[in-house]
Amino acid sequence: MRVFAHQAGRWHDLGKYRQHFQDRIRKENGFEAHLERDADASAGSMSQDKDHSTAGALWALQKDPRLGFLAMAIIGHHGGLRDAEAFRERIRKKEKKQLLDEALARNPPEELLAMLPGVDFSGLERLSKHRFEFWTRMLFSALVDADFLDTEHFFDAATRERRRVDATLPALAEALRAFMDRKQSGAADTPVNRVRREVLSAVLSAAPSPPGVFSLTVPTGGGKTLTSMAFALEHARAQGLRRVIVAIPFTSIIEQSAGVYREAFGALGDAVIEHHSALDPRRETPLNRVASENWDAPVIVTTTVQLLESLFANRTSACRKLHNIAHSVIVLDEAQTLPPALLTATLDGLGTLVEDYGCSVVICTATQPALGRRTGFPEGFPAIRELVPAGIGAFERLRRVKVRWPESREPMPYAALAQHLARERDVLAVVHRRDDARKLCELVDAETGAPRTLHLSALMCPEHRSKVLADIKARKRRGEPVRLVATQLVEAGVDLDFAIVYRSLAGLDSLAQAAGRCNREGLLEGLGELRLYEAETSPPRGVPAMALSVTRTLREQYPDLDLFSPESFRLYFERLYANASRDGKGIQTMRAEMRFEAVSQAFKLVEDDWSAPVVVPFEGCEPWLDALRRLGPSRERLRALQRFTVTVPRKLRDAWVERELARFASDTVVYLGPEHRPAYDETFGLVPARVGILDPGLLIPG
Q1: Are residues 342 and 424 in the same domain?
Q2: How many domains is the chain partitioned into structurally?
Q3: SS (H, E, C) 318-329
Q4: Most buried residue, 44, 314, 397, 583, by most Cβ within 10 Å?
Q5: pTM for the complete prediction?
Q6: Residue 402, by phi and psi: left (phi above 0), alpha (psi -120 to 50) or beta?
Q7: What secondary structure letter does DSSP report for 341?
Q8: End of a domain among 127, 156, 185?
């Protein structure tokens, strides 16, 4: 790639030699003069004076028609990679060809125009269509990042100097090893700690293995957060890899994991860079901010959405980091959450990183999905090496929960379930839907005669949920009863521990995750209990409904199905993936046709076309809203308001805006003002039906 990247760097701004562009850039003399973002480049409506990328693309094609991929990268280095047809339409325009003639008329240096020695197309010609498409993305990423860095240095060298993290991966590995040695030496010799030590030892012994795809399969409580990082650092040191990227599916646990890493690294904690939308602006350093732009840091902790969508993005800001993923260890935490409809493209992209770009992938979960070809998934990874030997028997030795399956298919009414919950002092109930959570919570309070049941759902903003989690821990410290009703958002990585957990029957992976909130620390004298029940409502359509169906079928065929057996999950995921469309949107076909924009629009881990965010009137949001209204958007203000955001159906939010019940604080931020406080319940969060009921205290003057 190096010679092609060098060539792209030489030719990408050839259009700046044009007299029109030189006159303009001298007149404007600033960063904006360098950009091409006043119009959609693919539509051909860009001002000729501002177009400085087309000339270089045309020159590349003139030098060698096989350089079409290079031309696509050059022409998109400000506006993004376009579909092949849109690219061809643009370069066919007569007025675009004039741009090259005008640039050449000013006699650019011959060494700039020359084809570099060593250009060899043979390697590219052997690539499959998908690997060639990915290679074009990598080239584009390297060009975009270099262009950003060079322009940034020229215009803003004094105020925005990038400071590299001093910590090396070997230094981080040593710091982590010392931390874990201290932690183990001070820990009691319990069965849990013995298993953790054995797992860590086995994993570290596998670190010198050649790069590839690994699985780290340990039960909840097996210490996978630090164990996976220990393997990643030692493996990177042994293989000369450049960084560790940890991808976690939920923002609610990213800060928790990043905090664990920083504590372990001690003085080298600045090496951990967080990149996610929910990062508290009070914790974001200038170093974190700039390193998030291109992932130029030793350890990146990010969301699965951020990582995987970057592999298939087309915009410059999202693609910029892609080339820095090469030669990395990628830890996929809670990999069972990958959406089946995107599996083919996801595994193809990750597999290409392993085969062509020197990466290793670690699939890390207690409920290992069947992602290998040997498990009957033709599009899966060719080989996956398990890091934890079966002989350790981690699942059997860390069994802390007894499972009670439903005795029949008859639904348990929520009124009856509420009676069961009211009799317990330390209990969690997990339901299918947000409406179910509110209904059950109210029924439990009616049974106990006091509004003390806690509630967690996505109708509560992140700031509110954090306060509830803190309240749970405080009540437990005081020895008070704790009853919590929640949706499945509590099931992946949220640090909760209950003696008894009720879970509506669902996919096997969801049931196991719920079990992970039961007797989590193994502190009970006996086993905790996971009590499964048939709910009176159905799970959401799509994968959740399909997952429930697969679980029911397995239970019928295997009455003694073991919820904690890796073999059970192999059977479950094989059937789930067999029943799902693994390339439901035809993404692989689009990739083969070099339709970059179409792929980017189709590859969405979170389907958000139907939903939209709204800032809710929760305590603490008003100062940030006021600053946004007065001063306009900034990274800090937008990040802060993420903590006060709830997602609602887009049609509903649009109706609120139309009726002036909700307003725009900026072009992209919609909020419900303080007069709508009755719509935000202190227990349940946003109650959409109450929007429009105004706070009378704010309507009475004086």
Answers
A1: no
A2: 4
A3: HHCCHHHHCCEE
A4: 314
A5: 0.87
A6: beta
A7: G
A8: 156
